[in-house]
Design brief:
The complex is a heterodimer.
Chain A (H helix, E strand, L loop, with lengths): L3 H33 L8 H36 L6 H23 L17 H31 L7 H32 L8 H12 L2 H15 L1 H4 L8 H14 L15 H13 L1 H21 L7 H4 L6 H24 L4 H4 L4 H30 L6 H27 L20 H31 L28 H24 L11
Chain B lengths: L4 H27 L9 E2 L17 E2 L9 E8 L2 E3 L2 E5 L3 E8 L4 E4 L6 E4 L3 E8 L4 E7 L11 E7 L15
Parallel strand pairs in B: 3-6, 5-11
Antiparallel strand pairs in B: 1-9, 2-3, 3-4, 6-9, 7-8, 7-10, 10-11
The chains are: A mainly alpha, B alpha+beta.
Bound molecules: copper (II) ion.
Chain lengths: 540, 174
């Protein structure tokens, strides 16, 4: 069992993460109801866009950042078997993140920051919102620093030994996050903050969008890496087997770090301020980053097959039925992989340089990212909670059956919600509208899908409520039990001696610096070379 | 580093798949010249009304076709509409749209076609496309631009080439 301080740090981070998750789900339900237009009393663009902004910020930034910090502390303490380095610094980071979240939440809830979670200028939010969001990022850097120090210290104390895979992957994520968050941090410090505080009048929108794209894509891997740690680290063992390959897993994390960073322009395919040659280069990188995901899919499915066969599964597919479907971790992993296949297919369309034009900014896009984010990633966060809560609070999970119902309903709800979004996207419905006002025959075809969307929203909100209820009940009324030691999956062939490039990040950080300079250097410099005309601020 | 034989085979399959996808995109982009919009052309959004190209009397379908025979359309995006609000263009001919924003970020999309672009204040967006079929199409704003965003759309009528006539003067539709 990990030490009390590390447990407390993890738990405190998880509370904020899952509290934000529960709250944001309710906003989501309101949005599908409002957007459908079926209940006229609900119609209000002002409330709708405040709600979308809050939902997005809570899910994409608050849930993820706090979950990743908490899970990272747990992963390091349990796999390196050392307490958290400098807990005071960890608490300080936690405080900065929490303070930032509260500061951003005030204007969001008051409708003073209805700029959506992408906050694209020149529409301007209250300065408090940008300050809060910046603090959330700055606080997370404390976490990244602690992870990197612990990784370096462990390596020093164990020369020549491979860093345990879960800790190695967490360190990769800390490096990734520092690289990733630099883009939006530059945008905040040099553009958004001085502009929203009234120190400057105008803002270079092209530059702001380019810097934001630097963060907006790789942040997805910041969210995804903990999910992959679950797939590699918990799932094989929970299924009763072993991890198929340790070394290839390391390679997958390193490739995500390498390819995941310099590809943000696929969010700017339709933008006028970047030339298409640059977009093409980023597109090639976007396809390359599918390789580590394809490797992960292979390794995890191979590990599951091994487990299924060990449990007596026979034949080409018999091992699938033999898996322990009633184990929440295993069930979540299977559902997550299913949604990854569907969402990945949609992602290929988005990533395709030319096809993207058909679905850009249509309902297809939230359909895609809800499958990948809420489906592939968040379902594994939920599974982590079910697995860790007993280990963190020393109480048995109040009901495994309820947890299984919750995971299945999450999967089904996402299916009902995202299928109509994909269809609506192909029919051309824009993603960020609060109601359908187009006086055009085309839009009549949209109505039945709006109805399905509401059903999906209801199922998902009920599922999220059930999740919060299970955790709350476990904590308050669960039967006391001795917390068990974390048992990370063991590889069939454990890594013993690794080449240095598979055990450290020095070379990789240098290669990344080069790639980033190549892919973002001129596209950023151009805004200082070109004569650009910067607009002033607009309200909404 | 040890790589299992199965892993090696899968790696080749994965690489093969990615190369196939990239190959298809290379082909459409560099052989058929299908590119997304983007050429970093700047313009002062605050004074579009005084500009050579986007002043009010210069907007809409242009009287003179471009040197290569394509029809040029100039639109200004502003809260909450694309101006002019209605245009008529011929089916089957290359149309070059030039768009600029007079205020915030907008997006333009004609559903179920590849006519789409972001409209970023400070930049001119240019999209080239062909509409094979006549019909009435909505041109929708697909980027959040304020509380009236839901109402931001204009009408595009695509008519059979034999019934279409270029506007006679100053970019105004007859
Ligand atoms: Cu608009």
């Amino acid at each position: 069992m990990i030490d009390a301080t590390s447990r407390k740090l993890t738990l405190f981070n998880f509370w904020v993460a899952f509290g934000a998750f529960g709250l944001a789900s309710v906003f989501g339900l309101y949005q599908v109801l409002e957007r459908s237009g079926f209940i006229p009393a609900l119609q209000s663009p002002a409330v709708y866009f405040a709600s979308v902004s809050t939902h997005g910020v809570l899910m994409a930034f608050v849930l993820t950042t706090f979950f990743i910090m908490g899970f990272g502390y747990y992963t390091l303490a349990s796999s390196l078997k050392v307490p958290i380095w400098n807990p005071l610094l960890a608490w300080a980071g936690y405080g900065v993140c929490l303070g930032g979240t509260v500061l951003a939440a005030i204007p969001l809830l008051l409708g003073k920051a209805s700029v959506l979670y992408t906050f694209y200028p020149p529409i301007q939010a209250s300065a408090l919102f940008y300050i809060g969001a910046t603090l959330l990022v700055v606080g997370s850097w404390f976490w990244a620093a602690i992870v990197i120090v612990m990784y370096v210290e462990w390596k020093k104390a164990h020369p020549g030994e491979p860093v345990p895979l879960p800790a190695f992957a967490t360190a990769a994520n800390a490096f990734l996050w520092l690289w990733t968050s630099a883009g939006v941090a530059l945008e905040a410090v040099f553009q958004l903050l001085p502009w929203s505080l009234g120190l400057v009048d105008t803002i270079d929108v092209g530059l702001a969008r380019t810097l934001f794209s630097w963060t907006l894509h790789p942040i997805v891997y910041f969210w995804l890496i903990p999910a992959y740690i679950v797939l590699y680290g918990f799932v094989p063992q929970a299924a009763g087997g072993k991890l198929f390959s340790d070394e290839l897993a390391r390679l997958a994390f390193l490739l995500i770090l390498l390819f995941g960073l310099p590809i943000g322009f696929h969010h700017l395919y339709m933008d006028p301020e970047q030339a298409h040659g640059w977009k093409f280069i980023h597109m090639v990188g976007t396809f390359a980053v599918a390789i580590p995901t394809l490797l992960t899919g292979f390794t995890v499915i191979a590990s599951l097959e091994g487990a299924g066969r060990k449990r007596g599964g026979q034949g080409l597919f018999g091992w699938i039925g033999a898996l322990p479907w009633k184990d929440p971790t295993v069930l979540a992993a299977i559902l997550s992989l299913l949604m990854l296949v569907l969402g990945g297919f949609g992602g290929l369309v988005n990533a395709s340089y030319a096809m993207n034009a058909m679905i850009h900014n249509t309902a297809w896009v939230p359909g895609h990212f809800h499958l990948i984010f809420a489906g592939t990633v968040v379902i594994l966060y939920l599974a982590v909670a079910y697995r860790l809560w007993p280990r963190l609070v020393g109480k048995a999970l109040v009901s495994k059956e309820l947890a299984l119902v919750q995971l299945w309903s999450w999967f089904i709800g996402l299916g009902i919600l995202t299928t109509p979004w994909h269809v609506l996207g192909l029919l051309g419905q824009p993603r960020r509208i609060s109601s359908v006002n187009y006086n055009s025959v085309l839009t009549l075809a949209w109505d039945p899908y709006e109805l399905a969307m509401i059903l999906g929203g209801l199922v998902l909100t009920a599922s999220a409520g059930l999740f919060v209820y299970i955790l709350y009940k476990t904590q308050t009324a669960g039967e006391a039990e001795q917390p068990v030691e974390e048992n990370w999956a063991v590889a069939i062939r454990p890594a013993t001696a690794l080449p240095e490039w598979l055990n450290s990040f020095g070379v990789w950080n240098k290669v990344i610096a080069g790639l980033m300079a190549l892919s973002y250097g001129y596209p950023i410099i151009q805004f200082f070379v070109l004569k650009t005309y910067d607009p002033t601020a607009w309200g909404y | 580093m040890h790589i299992d034989l199965l892993e090696k085979r899968w790696l080749y399959v994965a690489l093969g798949m990615i190369l196939l996808f990239l190959g298809a995109i290379f082909y459409t982009a560099w052989v058929h010249n299908v590119h997304p919009p983007g050429h970093a052309e700047t313009i002062d959004s605050a004074s579009l009304h005084l500009s050579e190209e986007f002043a009010e009397d210069k907007l809409g379908v242009q009287a003179e076709p471009l040197a290569n025979g394509s029809v040029q359309v100039r639109l200004v995006a502003g809260r909450y509409g694309f101006y002019p609000r209605e245009i008529e263009i011929p089916a089957g001919r290359t149309i070059v749209f030039r768009l600029a924003s007079m205020d915030v970020l907008h997006g333009a999309h004609i559903p179920m076609t590849n006519m789409g672009t972001m409209i970023v204040p400070g930049f001119v967006s240019e999209v080239t496309t062909v509409f094979p079929k006549p019909g009435e199409y909505p041109l929708l704003c697909n980027e959040y631009c304020g509380f009236g965003h839901d109402h931001m759309w204009s009408k595009v009528t695509v008519i059979a080439p034999e019934n279409w006539h270029a506007p006679t003067k100053g970019g105004q539709q007859p």
